[in-house]
Amino acid sequence: MIESKNLSPIYETHGASGTQLTGRGVESLNSDCFCISLDVDALKREFETDAETRSVYPLILEKCPHLFAAMPVFVSRRHLDGMAAIVRAAQMVIALPAYHEIVLGWAPQVARFDAGGARGVFLSYDFHVTGAGPKLIEINTNAGGALLNAALARAQRACCPAIAGMSTGPVALGALDQTFATMFFAEWRLARGDRDLRRIAIVDENPQEQYLYPEFILFQQLFRRHGVEAVIADPAALRLHDGVLWHGNEPVDLVYNRLTDFMLEQPAHAVLRDAYLNNAVVLTPHPHVHALYANKRNLAVLSDPERLRSFGVSEDIARTLLSGIPRTEIVRAADAERLWSQRRKLFFKPAAGFGSRAAYRGDKLTKRVWEQILAGDYIAQALVPPGERLIADHQAPHALKFDVRNYVYDGAVQFITARLYQGQTTNFRTPGGGFAPVFTEIAADPEPVRAPV
Question: Which fold has domain 327-383?
Answer without folding.
Answer: Dna Ligase; domain 1 (3.30.1490)
